[in-house]
């Protein structure tokens, strides 16, 4: 980490965009402990808690994005960082950024430090709105309407590889045949098979036996 000498006229009222850019770049570096970063930021700029770069991002914004909980706490408690300041790029507060980048431990810390959970960004979204956007939609089961089958690991259903999926995937064989699944049962055994109200659909693979009672799409 290069220690170029900061401006001689840097004070606790510093608003240098150049300092802001240096602070943001420094916080984003990997492999450096939060305590070391804190010492360097303090040396680099006397007003490191409030100085922003050309996009309005402060050291707190980037620390929240990178999951640096210790540095976030230090900036707020020791350097007077504005916990609810919005950047000029998206209108994100540090809390917005921590949620957007999945840094839940930092989001929790920011809330404990007094972050406002209802500040809106330029899209009129709060940090909680961003968290809700990433959640899977709620699906309500109806015994009357047609149903589909999703899975995270398909090898036990005889539909492909056994790699885990980040999100559940739709089993295409049922959809392509216009089958609405009414009931699914899984038994651990040496073979797999689909059985239906009328005829068996397929003989499948080793790993499980699955019985599906279905009716055709209306």
Task: Indicate the mean pLDDT.
Answer: 75
Unreliable residue runs: 188-218
What is the SS-derived class?
A: alpha+beta
Query: How large is the share of residues in beta strands?
Result: 5-15%
Biggest sheet, spatial arrangement of strands:
1-2
Blueprint of the fold:
Elements: H1 17-27, H2 34-44, H3 59-66, H4 69-78, H5 94-100, H6 104-112, H7 127-133, E1 150-151, E2 169-170, H8 172-176, E3 179-187, E4 209-216
Antiparallel strand pairs: 1-2, 3-4
Helix pairs in contact: 1-3, 2-4, 3-4, 3-5, 5-6, 5-7
Can you give a write-up of this model?
- By secondary structure, the protein is of the alpha+beta class.
- It has two domains: 17-133, Serine Threonine Protein Phosphatase 5, Tetratricopeptide repeat, CATH 1.25.40; 150-216, no CATH class.
- The chain has helices at 17-27, 34-44, 59-66, 69-78, 94-100, 104-112, 127-133, 172-176, and strands spanning 150-151, 169-170, 179-187, 209-216.
- A two-stranded antiparallel ribbon has the order 1-2.
- Helix 1 runs parallel beside helix 3 (59-66), helix 5 (94-100) runs antiparallel to helix 6 (104-112) and helix 5 packs parallel to helix 7 (127-133).
- The longest helix has 11 residues, at 17-27.
- The chain is elongated.
- Mean pLDDT is 75; it is low at 188-218.
Key features of this structure:
218 residues; alpha+beta; Serine Threonine Protein Phosphatase 5, Tetratricopeptide repeat; two-stranded antiparallel sheet; 8 helices; 31% helix; 10% strand; ANK repeat; repeat; Signaling_Regulatory_Domain; Ankyrin_rpt-contain_sf
